[in-house]
């Protein structure tokens, strides 16, 4: 095994899942703050239940999370001890602009993120910033209805300009939107969208998608103008869709689901809407106001690299009876249980070869450098007297690193790095709880909110430390 010496071994988090301090230093309220833990979580994320305020009837673990806001120095020091080369984190939009489009940015918010960046650079850790990771200011949702309104583009560009101005020369790698395709699956979480009675959902979703795509292109263009050495990528929730059988209808179904997944990236990487997407919108009666300026921006603002999350592949069938055999786990992407794969404790099917297949599919499609910015195993870790023995996580990471090695050395693809998800325990985006832990660093925080927030190294911490030190040769 031989990884390039510049390969970016690292870890990833998101502001709304780790920072806490959701009302400190003039931070405004965001959509991610009003999504509760419990049975109402998915209806709110789907935009079917309107919640634009927090109440006393629900529990919001993300409000405190793991208190990265006050402990970032301690955590980044641990990242450095682990030998991390890259740390991916995101911006809480409302820390910079509490109402989303304030006249001037909140200096306290800019100071915080610059301090996080400086702490990374102190240890030689490359910052990778996600500008928008499921984050929409509540004030803008009330004002415009989230990304269904074109005004969101200008508000987003104010955020970008403030970040690029403050962090110019310090941050090379940027991502515009996290898992941008999630807009179609979880509209409120992905884009601050809830549906009014009688609204055409397809019209709303594809209009919002267009606005985000234009905003992404404008951000890429601005970044290149303000920071000539910067690289800006897109980011999707990836994972190949396998046909359940070789029946042509299953094969077509798999192709169709893959196309759905790559819809946004087709535009961000190629600069124009694919033919099939145009035809689909026509069939759905969707009419998007695409101006000549939009068309020009999409062409000029294509991304420099393709980043993505990969946790599992998916299996699909055209047969209604087969579809009853749903795979447990990721409720966002409905899929059939693959009989050839084992599953995690949460039902996510484990498929390291699927990562290699996904990488090849993405490169064949776009011919741009790849960056795996999320990969990992969620599990209910147990603290023993002599430590936290998460051998299952080590096994998962080892096999996926082997797949990365094959991508680089056998397939010859340009893979920039891998930032494993939840390198430190944090609040799960899908379930809203901390019990589903991804980290190599344990945080003493429990589902009921108790715990002293002490950080403890798991066995996977020591293992990953050696992997990075050996540049992937010791697994």
From TrEMBL:
GO molecular function (one): 6-phospho-beta-glucosidase activity
Enzyme class, broadest EC rank: hydrolase
Keywords: Glycosidase, Hydrolase
Signal peptide boundaries: none
Pfam family, one: Glyco_hydro_1
GO cellular component, one term: cytosol
Enzyme nomenclature, EC number: 3.2.1.86
InterPro entries (UniProt xref): GH (IPR017853), GH_1_N_CS (IPR033132), Glyco_hydro_1 (IPR001360), Glyco_hydro_1_AS (IPR018120)
GO biological processes: carbohydrate catabolic process
Residues forming the catalytic site: 374 (nucleophile)
Domain of life per record: Bacteria
Similarity annotation: Belongs to the glycosyl hydrolase 1 family.
Annotated protein name in UniProt: 6-phospho-beta-glucosidase
Lineage: Bacteria, Bacillati, Bacillota, Erysipelotrichia, Erysipelotrichales
